[in-house]
Amino acid sequence: MEQTVSFCGRVLTASELDLVRQIIADFSRLSQAELAHTVCELLAWRRPNGKLKSSECVAWLQKWQEHNGLPGLPELRVTKPRAAHRFHADPLSDAQPPVRGRLADYQPLRLQLIEDLSGRRLFQQYVQRYHPLGYRVPYGAQLRYFVRGPNPPQPVLACLLFSSAAWTMAPRDAWIGWTDSQRRANLPLLVNNGRFLILPWVEVPHLASHILSLAARRLPADWLTAYGVRPLLLETLVDPPYTGTCYRAANWILVGQTQGRGRMDRTHQAQGSCKDILLYPLESHWRQRLCQFPAPQACHAPIGEVP
Is the pTM of this model over 0.85? Predict the structure, then answer.
């Protein structure tokens, strides 16, 4: 019989412990702190004030690794001292002169995968300043892109953020047709488009839908390189009063609305507004593969920010 495992007095079920092991095994590039954030978010390990029990989780992970109950943990990377997160804008993200013209004038567009600290900071500033939902730090699997024009100085026209899919959404899951066990195994094959921002000074007709089409072609290979799994389906959530016009123009499919519970819901309690759910298949046999069990590729635990 497997040894009982508990966290802060709470005994873990077998499925919860398997999920922790899966996260550690599949996301070996994350630091211990990032793994702890991810585990706490998925299993709703929070303090009474709503904050994640991340520091306790790091100690817990290290303890159970010593008992050979968990896969090997990555070394804890040195980070800056903990402090309240403050947003500082700099002139690089200030509004620019209007960008206007035909879509043809800005082709071919270039999707730049953001991999450096300065790029991530500029991305954060753009989204925080100009996206209706602002910026929230995503945990775990995530890729960010700038969309740039072809002509020097190749100005940034748009920003894209992709992260792991929502844990469960009834309309999405019904449309896919998978069972609960298939969803748990194959959810890593879904990726969420958590932020899409056309910078407000950019006024180019049909640009947004064109970018979405380019991103759908580019993302699978980049995600495979970064996380070892090639996604089959994209999802996004659209907050009212927006209707997702550019997604529909790019052939994304509206499958229903959320119930306002948040992307990583496990408590079945409403937390916000209902959002439209739009999906975009990336391969022709996506449904057949998502409804297979076990998953045909290595699994990755669902991680992401709540939009």
Answer: no
